Amino acid sequence: MIYDPASLGQTDRYKLMIGGVVPRPIALVSTCSPDGRTNLAPFSFFAGVGSNPMTLLFCPANDERGQEKDSLRNAKPVSEGGVGQFVVNIVPFSHAHQMAACAEPLPHGESEFDLSGFTPSPCEVVSPPRVAQCPVSYECITRQVIRTNPGQPAGGNIVIGEVVRVHVRDDLIDERHRIDQAKLDAIGRMGGPAAYCTTRERFEVPSGRAALGDTPASRPRPPA
Ligand SMILES: Cc1cc2nc3c(=O)[nH]c(=O)nc-3n(C[C@H](O)[C@H](O)[C@H](O)COP(=O)(O)O)c2cc1C
Q1: Domains and CATH numbers, the chain
Q2: Ligand 1 lined by 109 (C-beta under 6 Å)
Q3: Residue 130: burial class (beta carbons within 10 Å; 0-12, 13-18, 19+)
Q4: In angstroms, what is the span from residue 176 Cα to ligand 1's centroid?
Q5: Which of 13, 89, 119, 124 is placed for a possible disulfide with 134 were both Cys, Cβ 3.0 to 4.6 Å?
Q6: Atom 6 (ligand 1): residue with closest C-alpha?
Q7: pLDDT, tens digit, for every residue of 178-211?
Q8: Which of 31, 43, 64, 118 to mutate to test the pocket of ligand 1 (most atoms within 8 A of CB)?
């Protein structure tokens, strides 16, 4: 099948997006409003951008009325009425349910920290708290927001942040700054509203020509 997105409704375009772009990492984003109230929400349209400077992005879409979600209202730059700061927290398998609870659309100003039972912990540079239960957190200053369809339902928004502090639980990191993937036990989001995966089954492949050498991954698989 070949689809022209322009001939599909928004819901079907969304299904083709989340069904194929998998697995998606999850950013549990903490922000606070200009009057200091905390907010916490998960976003799987999330990626690293670069390491010089260290930057990452997450994408809070407009809600069904075309309005900005609280995370965007809070994280956008001060010049646009926000606080200009956010924290990305990485969620371990052990806290999948608490993370998913944070997607509850609470009224502006009510905190998902209270709803989920996650513990806020102060950051070093930014005012939103990090999540104490998350083994890795990135404190970010918002550099730019790109809006693909402002004011329209499901319009996309890209929030780009510069990482100013990285918190890693001591038992997860070695002296060469490598994060132990097994101990991190991160989860990802799959193609349905309630579908997730673990990162427990992993394999290694060298890059470039070496990938074509005699490795288990390069050997032909027997027919299923
Ligand atoms: C695992 C997971 C991933 C999500 N990813 C996104 C996303 O990438 N973009 C988005 O707009 N909403 C996403 N949502 C929905 C938001 O979390 C939800 O709309 C939330 O209420 C937004 O909170 P806020 O209004 O406090 O910002 C996701 C929900 C879950 C459970």
Answers
A1: 5-212 (2.30.110.10)
A2: no
A3: buried
A4: 34
A5: 89
A6: 43
A7: 999 999 999 999 999 999 999 999 999 999 999 9
A8: 43
